[in-house]
Amino acid sequence: MAEQHVSRLIDTVAWVRIEDGRILCARPRGKDIFYIPGGKREGAETDLQTLLREIDEELTVALRPETVTHVGTYEAATHDSTDPGDGVVVRMSCYTAEYSGILAASSEIEEVAWFTYADRALVPPVDRLLFDDLSAAGSLS
């Protein structure tokens, strides 16, 4: 198998929140696709700093740092790539965590939804890898 050429890596961190066999997803304003909540790091931020900031910005809740646990890191081509061989890859480091506050879409999020495995087609390729693992583990309905 040929090794994929990576021309640009988009490094992201995501919060995996599962309740009753469904995973929390969010659709940013102006986008037509849902994502696992999270985002890109700024400067020299650690995964934890990025995760705490992004979830606060997107969902108005505070993750409890002492409960953050790494569940996996996934890489796939971007969903909006016109040429899958262009080498633009998204790396998504996924973490679970408990939170305080009330989940709500912020000004940058148009909609939040709880997805099952049947909704897998509504998320980008890197998120689908997570869905596959969660389904195989029996965590996702």
Automatic annotation (TrEMBL):
InterPro entries: NUDIX_hydrolase-like_dom_sf, NUDIX_hydrolase_CS, NUDIX_hydrolase_dom
Source superkingdom: Bacteria
UniProt domain Nudix hydrolase: residue ranges: 7-136
Keywords per UniProt: Hydrolase
Name assigned to this protein: NUDIX domain-containing protein
UniProt source species: Nocardia aurea
